[in-house]
Amino acid sequence: MSASDSSQAWTAGPGAALRGSIRVPGDKSVSHRAVMLGALAQGVTRVTGFLEGEDTRATARVFERLGVRIETPSASERIVHGVGLHGLRGSDAPLDCGNAGTGMRLLAGALAGQAFDSVLIGDASLSKRPMRRVTEPLAAMGARIDTVEGGLPPLRIHGGRELRGIEYTLPVASAQVKSALLLAGLYAQGDTVVHEPHPTRDYTERMLAAFGWPIEFSPGYARLSGGHALRATDVAVPADFSSAAFFLVAASVIPGSELLLEAVGMNPRRTGLLSALRLMGADIVEENPRSEGGEPVADLRVRYARLRGVEVPQALVPDMIDEFPALFVAAAVAEGRTVVSGAAELRVKESDRIATMAAGLRALGANIKETPDGAIVDGGALGGGAVESHGDHRIAMSFAVAAQLAAGEVRIGDVANVATSFPGFEALAAKAGMRVGQA
Ligand SMILES: O=C(O)C1=C[C@@H](OP(=O)(O)O)[C@@H](O)[C@H](O)C1
Ligand SMILES: C=C(OP(=O)(O)O)C(=O)O
To answer: Residues enclosing ligand 1, CB less than 6 A?
Structure first.
């Protein structure tokens, strides 16, 4: 079975209360970056808690093709033998980023400063995602990157270019664009400065600092200059808040549930869903807050609560950008109306996440109306039926949660891509008490 096998389907729900304690896999954003910086560093980086997902494995394979030795001593562990900033070797074959926007956009930045040419390709979904947001500012830094018509992948990155730092204000809040510019900035003359319209996840900044690169950053701002070196360091990857999100919603909405999610990464730029669910009346307690590998981590105890619809504050949107499919499920079964706005970015993810969630929830009887930058959802009961994930991992898992509360069984189509971010979802969901399995 490959991640692009669109014939794979699940049947899910109805389910019973969720119980016990689970740990979701490693953070995808941190895993991508750990391999990238480890590869460009001098020395050996040991990554623990690495996400064994298709997206992050694709990034590791790209660096292997570029001459980096990466060992897998055990599952969720990688030893990256860094080659230094100028030690990568060009590849004649195209570099396949799979389904990963993060992989392709960050690599565009890192490869723009190399002496050799590279071609970045992706799967059908990634091949439709906008790349001008990175190619245009990288071009302003002196890079030359060709796209196909409309600014789409494949990306042909020309090597041997002299890069210079720029000061750039992002038109949309995007950690991927910020990170692409910072990675190109490692190779640039002078300062690279990025301003954001709203702060986004700062893993690249934190990890560059941990690898010894001088960098100044604060929420919404980052500045570095070229001409330094990265020094290998060990990276402990926390459990992915975005994967925990499905269980936060499921245990909140399924009567009688009480579930403990262990060691979840609590970087404030990721936990917007927690704030939104609490506004809706959720009962989620942070236990044993601590720091692991330089990141805040906590165990999250979730108990069933009656949720009410809310207007989701726009300021939370970037901090929960990947959690809207799950939030729409909570809204569909909450009491009253939920309004989401300021979230047009959802239309350019692995699928158009406003359209795919609206279509699927409507097929289950929900009352949801799309708007250009969000949706208006009037909560109620859900029935069984058939829904499509359109190859989008987060959509598939969100429908699996919705199915638990449906009056009948739900068939969820095109689910293979769940392996991109959450391999083993069905087994873990079943362990917690959900009903989901291969159709
Ligand atoms: O930098 C990252 O690791 C990510 C940034 C976000 O994308 P944008 O930068 O497009 O908002 C997010 O949706 C994606 O899942 C991971
Ligand atoms: C948008 C996502 O990832 P990416 O942009 O890396 O494909 C996601 O995981 O929800």
So the answer is: 29, 102, 174-176, 179, 201, 321-322, 345
Helix (H) or strand (E) holding 283: strand 283-292
Per-state percent for the chain, helix, strand, coil, to nearest 5: 35, 30, 40
Q: Please give the distance, rounded to the nearest whole angstrom, from the Cα atom of residue 101 to the centre of ligand 2.
A: 6
CATH 1.10.10.10 fits 9-26+238-438, yes or no: no
Would you say residue 276 has pLDDT above 70? Answer: yes
Strand partners, 329: none
Which CATH number is associated with domain 28-236? 3.65.10.10
pTM: 0.98
Nearest-angstrom CA–CA distance, 129 and 176? 13
pLDDT at position 175 is 98
Ligand at minimal distance from the CA of 323 is 2
pLDDT average, residue stretch 5-27: 95
Nearest to 338 by CA among 253, 228, 232: 253
Secondary structure letter of residue 131 according to DSSP: -
Averaged pLDDT for residues 64-85: 98
Q: What is the mean pLDDT of residues 305-334?
A: 98
ipTM confidence score: 0.99
Phi-psi region of 414 (alpha: psi -120 to 50; beta: other; left: phi over 0): left
Q: Ligand 1 centre from 306 Cα, in Å?
A: 31
Identical fold between 9-26+238-438 and 28-236? yes
List, for residues 146-156, the tens digit of each pLDDT value. 999 999 999 99
Where do the DSSP E strands lie in 9-85?
Answer: 9-12, 19-22, 42-48, 69-71, 77-83
* Lookup: tokens for 169: 């204000």
For the chain, domain boundaries:
9-26+238-438, 28-236
Determine the Cα–Cα distance for residues 214 and 220; give it in Å rounded to an integer: 18
